[in-house]
Write a structure and sequence with these properties.
With about 200 residues, the chain is an all-alpha fold. The chain has six helices and no strands. The radius of gyration is 18 Å and the shape is elongated.
Length: about 200
């Protein structure tokens, strides 16, 4: 016999799946859009944000996999996969942003990048709030952690947007690699939280 608690949990699980599938779909499209924008503008921040979208795809896939089963072992593996993705992103962006600054490499303007990151920031903040509430209600550390990943995705979109806007409006070419460093900071912070924090 199905209890009220079981019905409520199934409703929350369906919401969790819906939030993750929405995030997954947006980022799959985003990888293509960001690749085009990064290549045409030669922007390290847009390239880094495209990689972040790939990590978000992996993170959403890991959460969908974890929500489909149960057990702490499954949760730990999902969290580690998310953490490894962030570590790789931080390493790439640190090297690339430093190289761009040292070489004085100037990216072009990117109206497409500006529009995409503006929309992405608003959407990711909305999805992150939904994941935080649903993860707390389910008492699911993987969904809560991935909610923070989505929040960081929104923050990074805002940082990249600022860098692109400053480059376009004021000619501050160095704002683009500085936005890359912002991504490094948040990626490293999330790696520390995943591997050394309490879940």
């Amino acid at each position: 016999m199905t209890t009220t608690d079981d019905v409520a949990r199934q409703t929350l699980l369906r919401r969790g799946f819906a939030l993750e599938y929405a995030t997954l779909a947006w980022n799959v499209i985003g990888v293509v859009v960001l690749a085009v924008a990064a290549i045409t503008s030669r922007s390290v921040a847009l390239a880094g944000f495209g990689l972040d979208s790939l990590i978000e795809i992996g993170a959403s896939t890991a959460v969908i996999w974890e929500l489909s089963g149960s057990g702490e072992g499954r949760q730990r593996r999902a969290l580690k996969l998310i953490g490894i993705g962030f570590a790789l992103l931080a390493a790439y962006l640190l090297v690339q942003s430093t190289w761009v600054l040292a070489a004085g490499f100037r990216p072009h303007h990117s109206p497409l990048g500006i529009a995409w990151t503006a929309i992405t920031a608003a959407l990711m903040f909305t999805l992150a709030a939904g994941k935080a509430r649903t993860g707390a209600a389910l008492d699911n550390p993987v969904l809560r952690t991935e909610g923070r990943v989505t929040l960081i995705d929104g923050l990074l979109a805002a940082a990249v947007l600022a860098g692109l806007a400053l480059n376009s409006l004021a000619g501050w070419w160095w704002a683009d690699p500085l936005a890359g460093y912002v991504l490094v900071y948040y990626a490293v912070r999330e790696v520390k939280e995943i591997f050394f924090g309490k879940h």
